[in-house]
Amino acid sequence: MLNRLQESDIKLLRVFYAVASCNGFTAAEPVLRMQRPNISAAIKKLEERLDLVLCHRGRGGFQMTKEGEVVFQETKRIFNAFDNFVFNLKSLHDDYSGHITLVLMAGLATSMQLAVSKAVKSTMKKFDDIHVNIQTRLYNEVEHVALSGECHLVLSTYDMVKPESVTFHPTGVHCKGRLYCAPTHPLAKYREADALPDNMRIEDFPAIGMSGLSSVNYINGENRLAIQTFSDSYDVCMAAVMTGEYVGLLPDYIAKEQGAATGLVPICKGSLFEFSHELFVMNGKNTRLNPVLRHCIKELEYFISESQK
Question: What's the pLDDT at 2?
């Protein structure tokens, strides 16, 4: 079993990272500029070093094991942190080439994702030899990745008390939402009602919450949502709501983008448990905001604001 990383282990991990990212040996060949037998030998050697089976390969195609998934996620963190270190080191010499990592909250609106692509294009056009790694994280992970050094910038809503260790750059955009249910849910018939009947309480209906969301969102005056289970993203929350077994808080953009396919119903004209979460570009206080990152932040703020007009 591996006790200490050697330079050769880093090279083997880079091979595995490429294979896992490309979801297969063949797809990773042009990325690694290696032939399949050499890739296979490297993966086998890494498995021997780690004393773990990382993936299955054969007629059924490439498939990572549970252990392989863990190693892949940890490898991603290592390489992100290393790329960030190299980029920050270069910037001390006024060399702004290299990779920057931008993390997006999972489940952002399509219009916001398109705005991100425009901001990234503008940044890459202004600074030569800059490449941007765009990744996603679950809502309850965004604060951690901003602080950990895994990335340079994070784009996410945030509704908790803001920690002093994170810098928040407002985009001027708020993500509004409310309580939704499926068309088959008993509360769907109260779509146009001003309020639920006096003999009916929202607490009597199971609700799904989202990990990391402030509990304040589940309280509306004397009404409280009866949270029975949790999701880790709005997409998954929508899937649970569509079973017809739960009500749940969802951003309006999800209902708008998925409305035709899902028929999501806002309960009581959407007046129940309304929320408005501000969208921020975030970075850890230890992140050195050089001209590249400052330009990227400015462009993100501009294009996201424009996308909502």
Answer: 65
For residue 90, pLDDT over 90 is answered with no
Average pLDDT over residues 115-125: 95
Q: What is the mean pLDDT of the chain?
A: 89
Tokens standing for 76? Answer: 């991603």
Question: Is the dihedral angle over the CA atoms 259, 262, 263, 264 positive or is it negative?
Answer: negative
- 8 Å CB contact between 202 and 225: yes
Alpha carbons 9 and 12: distance in angstroms, whole number: 5
Token pair belonging to 120: 């990234």
Which region holds residue 212: left if phi is over 0, alpha if psi is between -120 and 50, else beta?
left
Q: 116 pLDDT exceeds 70?
A: yes
Q: Which two tokens stand for residue 252?
A: 């309006």
What is the residue-wise DSSP string for 1-31? ---S--HHHHHHHHHHHHHHHHTSHHHHHHH
**d(C-alpha 4, C-alpha 264), whole Å:** 52
Interstrand relation of 247-251 and 265-266 (parallel, antiparallel or unpaired): unpaired
Residues 4, 2: Cα–Cα separation, whole Å:
6
For residue 164, give the amino acid letter. Answer: E
pLDDT of residue 262: 80
Q: What is the mean pLDDT of residues 255-259?
A: 82
